[in-house]
Design the sequence.
């Protein structure tokens, strides 16, 4: 008889365990986007979103629209949502940095190709425009620490001025 009384208890425990395992698992990008949304809300910032990259247009720009395959000259500074006042990377004074935006978004960032999130953000800009991008860690530096005092999976903020779009077919 004691065994029959345990069966409902065991079934209840098994059902509870099964139900709790049905919770939606989140991904790093989901967590990053939630953190960025919270940061924006807490700081009263209104930003648009495209492909999980949030952007705030400061100056619309008067030149051509930036496209995939363009080479661009930008001035920028970068920080994290965790420490927005500490700049971890910036362009060299008044000198713009030349970057190539691949014809297909993605790839690994190197000296001439920006991180994925910056590739996405730049395509929202016009020449002579200024924007701020809020980029999920998954689209930035991932698990890498940006500097000795930064955290892993840091969501980054890029303030960017698109100085010039350099195209082969563009006359200078």
Sequence:
């Amino acid at each position: 008889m004691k065994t029959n009384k345990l069966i409902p208890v065991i079934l209840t425990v098994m059902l509870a365990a099964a139900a709790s395992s049905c919770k939606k698992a989140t991904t790093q990008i989901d967590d990053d986007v939630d953190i960025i949304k919270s940061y924006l809300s807490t700081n009263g910032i209104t930003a648009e979103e495209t492909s999980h990259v949030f952007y705030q247009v400061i100056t619309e720009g008067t030149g051509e629209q930036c496209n995939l395959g363009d080479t661009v000259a930008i001035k920028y500074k970068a920080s994290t949502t965790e420490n927005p006042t500490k700049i971890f990377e910036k362009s060299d004074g008044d000198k713009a940095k030349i970057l190539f935006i691949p014809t297909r978004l993605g790839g690994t960032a190197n000296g001439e190709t920006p991180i994925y999130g910056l590739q996405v953000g730049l395509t929202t800009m016009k020449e002579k425009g200024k924007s701020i991008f809020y980029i999920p860690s998954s689209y930035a530096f991932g698990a890498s620490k940006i500097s000795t005092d930064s955290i892993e999976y840091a969501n980054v903020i890029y303030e960017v001025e698109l100085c010039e779009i350099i195209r082969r077919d563009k006359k200078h």
Observations:
- The CA atoms of residues 37 and 98 lie 30 Å apart.
- The domain at 26-166 is CATH 3.10.50.40 (Chitinase A; domain 3).
